[in-house]
Write a structure and sequence with these properties.
This protein is of the alpha/beta class. It is built from 10 helices and 10 strands. The protein has 2 domains: 57 residues, no CATH class; 152 residues, Rossmann fold (3-Layer(aba) Sandwich).
Amino acid sequence: MSIDSRGRRFVALGDPLQLEPVIDLPEPLLERVAEHFAGSGDFDVRRWSVQDLADRRARVGTEIALAGGARVRLGCPLRVHWRCDQPMVGLAKALAYGEVLVEATPERPPLALPPSAWLDVPRADSESPSHFVAAEVPVLLRLLGACAETDAAAYVITPYRDVAAGLRQALRRTAFAHFLEEERLGTVHTFQGREEDVVAIVLGGTGGTASRRFAYERPNFLNVAVTRARRRVFVIGWHAMWAQLPHFRTVAKVLPRHPADTWPRQRRTDPLGKPST
């Protein structure tokens, strides 16, 4: 069945720089479809979505530069960002949208939380079959405690399902068990299209570099995770390991690094947003 068999024209609405479609068809079927269109390279659904095809075939459009120098063609690019404060808008521009993105976030009252940051949880790398890192749990709990003190709602996002499972088990025994009932904790796919004041990105990831490839090969994961946050974003994970990877390197340049065991030195700010004494 051709892509336009149900109409003479179609409009694809989406953003190829957010999460790619999840393909759950059997691999042999995908291979047969790819073989049928062999030579064109355009119809391998394992590589290209409908949105990708529409953007590449559009008569008008533009190319934008991604972090790392790659370029992507967009038929009708996202131009105005109105949801997030800095540094999330700057991160979105640096990771995915280049100079075409215009910041139009309205002014909001100050949020009584420390600025966005990378909370470093150093550890020795290992080949554990699970990506869950128990040492990241107390850091997350301190962050959620700071949010609760300031009435700031939060999401907890992770790249890995086993990290999400470990965090659910840990939070079930705390004052933040409601995060499970309200679906405030999960992998990034859980939060596509959603937004909250604060986002904690818990990285985990104790395996080798290959196990982290899906999170850094393209900017999509980080672009979605970071821009779920309206006011603050906090990355929790081993800075020395993740910050050397593509796209995470960009985040590491923007977010100040704080040793997790010393954060936060001061949780509260005055009504003007200045640190209390």
